[in-house]
Amino acid sequence: MTAxxxxxxxxxxxxxGARVERxxxxxxxxxxxxxxxxxxxxxxxxxxxxxxxxxxARIVSTRLPAAGAERVVLRATMGDALxxxxxxxxxxxxxxxQPPLASGKVRFVGEPVAMVYAPTxxxxxxxxxxxxxxxxxxxVYADAASARAATGExxxxxxRDNTFVTLNADKDFDLHAKQASLVVRRSIDLARHCxxxxxxxxxxAYWDHQADQLVxxxxxxxxxxxxxxxxxxxxxxxxxxxxxxxxVGGAFGYKCVLQQEELCVAWLAKTHxxxxxxxxxxxxxxxxxxxxxxxxxxxxxxxxxRGRLLALDARxxxxxxxxxxxxxxxxxxxxxxxxxxxxxxxxRGYRCVTECVATNKPGFxxxxxxxxxxxxxxxxxxxxxxxxxxxxxPWEVRLExxxxxxxxxxxxxxxxxxxxxxxxxxxxxxxxxxxxxxVRERQRKAEAxxxxxxxxxxxxxxxxxxxxxxxxxxxxxxxxxxxxATVRMTPDGGLEMRVGxxxxxxxxxxTFAQIAHEILxxxxxxxxxxxxxxxxxxxxxxxxxxxxxxxxxxxxxxxCKALAPRVMHIGAHxxxxxxxxxxxxxxxxxxPSASVSIAxxxxxxxxxxxRLPADVDPAGLEVTTGFKPKVDTGAFTYASHAVTVAVxxxxxxxxxxxxxxxxxxxxxxxxxxVEGQTYGGVAQGIGTALYEETPYDRNGQPLASTLADYMLxxxxxxxxxxIHHFETPSPxxxxxxxxxxxxxxIAPPAAIFNAVNDALQPLGAEVAQTPLTxxxxxxxxxAAQLADASRxxx
Length: 794
Hints:
By secondary structure, the chain is of the alpha+beta class. Helices cover 28% and strands 24% of the residues. It has 19 helices and 31 strands. β26 and β27 (595-597) form a beta hairpin.
């Protein structure tokens, strides 16, 4: 199904660069994973929520059922729980307070109004249906335009208008725009859609009487941050809250914020000292879980006669939904948009206004490739439009505009600090792999079935592992800093690693073990990763923004490097040689003429201290240390994608014939993990391009509430993918690794749309709104035919 090639030969063994099979797959492939839904304990009650049927309305009254009223919770019942407030230091930011259950009014269809619990979910749902709520309709703001036009009854009390935040950038725009001989304008839209992980929201909470502690078992990406905010909202010391994240069935950003349901279920456990659980069903996810991606772009590009981009003027409108989420706030999406729109291109004039508007929809949540899928879509469609305007091949125009390798490190017009890489080389390789000349020849011959062939390209950068300085400019209430790791040698010479990030499919149990093996030589079968438990791991802000391998993996590397001299010192003593005469190789301390195993070293420390040197380090065989990159503005992964499509102008069907990826994420710790992440991301990107959409009517009612309405790509919609790897190490990270968890999802919509527009050129049609459904494609063709007829008649 897939194929991969490399600039460098595959590395043998178990260390950095080796194609080691994922350790965690053994349990998952045999159905032995443990998810929140798998937990069982005495007196466990299941939770259901009564959700609002209206998008914007005041709550006039609530009537509880005569039987079971004690098991119904309203906001007024939760007087000792705070609202979720995500403040920001951005100057124009307006803060929203999200109550755990609706208070006073509801702001989107599906907002939880009442919480009900019972021994089973079915009983809880039956009881919830008996709760009667009277609503008084309010004006509904179902899109950004209606929200902007509102003069009264705004989304949130005390606001001046319905805009969360407005961001501006202007870097020498007028100076460079006036030098242009060509101006190209495009309106571009990225549809709203959901994230659809296999496992939705899931949380179980109980009171641990022995530890006198609230324990919250949650399918979260960020257990330490959830502990912080739950303690704050519930009025508990953090020492009395423990968050455990077991196996997580996908997340993609959906689970990196505090969910209302997490707070509600935790409150129940704190209040009643019993266990409670909530598992989101698919309909709840689709109508109320969270939305993402909805961007509108007004792009004006200023270029010379060859298509060299000189300046870009953009206005971006983001439909942010009803609430700003904690901790990243709604400011993250517009911040990423204004900062990443220029992409990998070397132009010097830039002006951008990005406005995030509040509407009666679920709140925006960060999703794989935060804002970058949208900005890549807008930028790459604009680059192709420039190429058509100057009559040149799009890949050639793109090539001349990319930042050259000779300019690295490079600070672009939006102040992004590109650390390393060869962007043009990735495009040239993609051009070679897709076989552009052969595609053009096929176009000239035409297809016997009448379909139109097209080819499209897209190049992007992925800012990964960005840290303190970057998040501080976005004004988020939590700013990432150092990630810590604890590495402990066990008495039999195995290794136990503890990190604060948590995996939701990235393969950390394998890649982190490979890092440790590279330094200490311990067999990865004897290396265990402990993560996802605030009671057992050092602090980390968590797994998001393609940061985990670089940050916590870097901390593992640093800890292993700090442990190695202690191991060698004991080993040298056992060998009767000076410490300077030994080294570690393949799990042994090797001297000039003999060696001892690391297991023997560990046995000496734990079980035979009589064999230790007199000056042994009393800290022993355990190290905790922190890490952040030397430069925390990000390690920039990049890639070029190319795709060939066939478009049926009669039915509007688009078939992907060939898809190639040329990616560079620095030093690959495990190429198979990189490829798995990339393939999965591309599948999601194909969904964004062709299938996925969460539409709303003018009353704010969601029109895709089941998987019969919300279309996802399946095995037959994802083509054979061919991938080629470059490896340009980052100068700022351990082993030169860069994050790459989001990149696969960024480029596909742009590459596919460019290919379709290439195919439609003979018809004079162009598409620029996702998803590219047959209806939209046929409408574009019909509009082009009508315009052509009008021109001929004039």
